[in-house]
Write a structure and sequence with these properties.
Radius of gyration: 20 Å
Bound molecules: iron/sulfur cluster
Order of helices and strands: HHEHEHEHEHHHHEHEHHEHEH
CATH architecture of one domain: 3-Layer(aba) Sandwich
Number of helices: 14
Number of strands: 8
CATH topology of one domain: Rossmann fold
Structural class: alpha/beta
Largest sheet: 4 strands, parallel
CATH class of one domain: Alpha Beta
Oligomer: single chain
Distance between the termini: 56 Å
């Protein structure tokens, strides 16, 4: 009897949907320390070089029952969901956690964490708010050095030039593979659907990079490109793929991702780290050259011009914003982007996500109407 080949996409969906069971197995097998990091922008290469496994903690989509007793109900779901996971015991597997300073919510989350869970080592990654400034680069390098000492204290392994260089090379190789997967999604969406490719991206933040690279080798790389001219091309800006079903909706509604700025999407692979010379400086350079996360400071005019240039060069016909409810940073910068798109006759749709009471069917309806505008079926 002929054996059926295992579906190569399944492991990625399993990790993305239930990362904590997988991580438990890996910890038991390897004995490695597990360091959580609240998204975005913790330097995963440093965690890996210190001998630990970095695992992203994302709060979106987590049903809330306990966290509201500790954090105001008007906090975004990313902060609230992360706290909920810890209060429920899901994050008890962590040996430490890094919370980045990107907004008031993450800053408050750090202080709450220290007070509520004094037994779990927690570090605040003080990311500079201003990008593109020599002083900020110098400061961030010192911050990375400080964090690497904290990591070494937890794992008992120093971050040396050798293990950091090897970690950076692994991460660069992983990013290159993910970039190829993203390209496949644009040219062969029938097989490399957005839902599948984004599951590959999501899982990479929750699995050892070298093992994830091995899993990626089984994907159907030899599938030929298909004609996708009938599909409408969209560009997406936001924090995470939220609700998680959204990529399946893109596929179902014939929308192809031409590009995105999601922190677990293309933004995470667009820039590699130079693996020679001043390695800490290379990590800083990478951070400074990535698409700025909402809440970082860039000259407002340049911020909008650069955004428009990225949308145009992607070839997208329209832009979808996935804005987390109660995210002040996104609420602050979205109107400038929307006005610029309108002036340039580029249609856009702003979706408020992670909102208790927003159903996937409502989002589907709005996306469907947006797709019809892009395809010319609606005025
Ligand atoms: S930037 Fe927005 S979405 Fe991200 S943690 Fe802060 S408030 Fe939440």
């Amino acid at each position: 009897m002929a054996r059926t080949k295992p579906d190569p996409w399944v492991p990625f969906f399993e990790i993305a949907q239930d990362p904590w069971s997988k991580i438990k197995e890996i910890k038991a097998k390897t004995g490695k320390k597990i360091i959580g990091h609240v998204l975005p922008d913790a330097p995963e290469e440093l965690i890996y070089a210190a001998g630990a496994i970095p695992v992203a903690v994302a709060g979106a989509g987590i049903p809330i029952s306990l966290a509201q007793s500790q954090i105001p109900s008007y906090s975004c779901s990313h902060g609230m969901g992360a706290l909920e996971l810890k209060l429920k015991g899901t994050l008890d597997i962590l040996d430490g956690i890094i919370i980045p300073y990107v907004c008031d919510t993450t800053r408050n989350l750090y202080h709450l964490w220290r007070r509520l869970f004094p037994d779990v080592p927690c570090e605040f990654l003080r990311l500079p708010k201003k990008l593109g400034d020599p002083g900020a680069s110098h400061y961030l390098k010192e911050e990375y050095l400080r964090i690497s000492k904290w990591l070494s204290f937890i794992t008992g392994q120093n971050v040396t030039e050798d293990n950091l260089s090897s970690s950076i090379s692994t991460y660069n190789e992983s990013r290159d593979q993910l970039k190829s997967a993203y390209l496949k999604m644009k040219t062969s969406p029938a097989v490399w659907s957005a839902n599948r490719v984004i599951a590959v991206f999501e899982s990479v933040f929750r699995f050892p990079r070298d093992e994830h690279l091995s899993l990626m080798r089984s994907l159907p790389w030899d599938v030929a490109g298909t004609d996708n001219t009938s599909r409408s091309k969209i560009y997406v800006r936001g924090k995470v793929w939220d609700p998680p079903e959204i990529t399946g909706l893109f596929d179902e509604l014939g929308l192809t991702l031409a590009g995105d700025e999601i922190v677990t999407g293309f933004r995470s692979v667009e820039v590699n780290t130079q693996a020679c010379g001043d390695l800490f400086g290379s990590l800083v350079d990478r951070h400074m050259s990535m698409t700025p996360y909402t809440g970082y400071y860039v000259d407002p005019r340049k911020l909008v011009e650069d955004f428009l240039a990225r949308v145009r060069s992607s070839g997208a016909q329209g832009v979808v914003f996935l804005n987390p409810k109660f995210c002040e940073a996104a609420a602050f910068d979205t109107p400038d982007f929307v006005n610029a798109l309108k002036k340039n006759n580029i249609p856009c749709l702003v979706l408020e996500t992670s909102s208790r009471g927003t159903s996937t069917s409502q989002i589907k309806l709005r996306l469907e109407a947006f797709g019809e505008i892009l395809s010319g079926d609606l005025p």
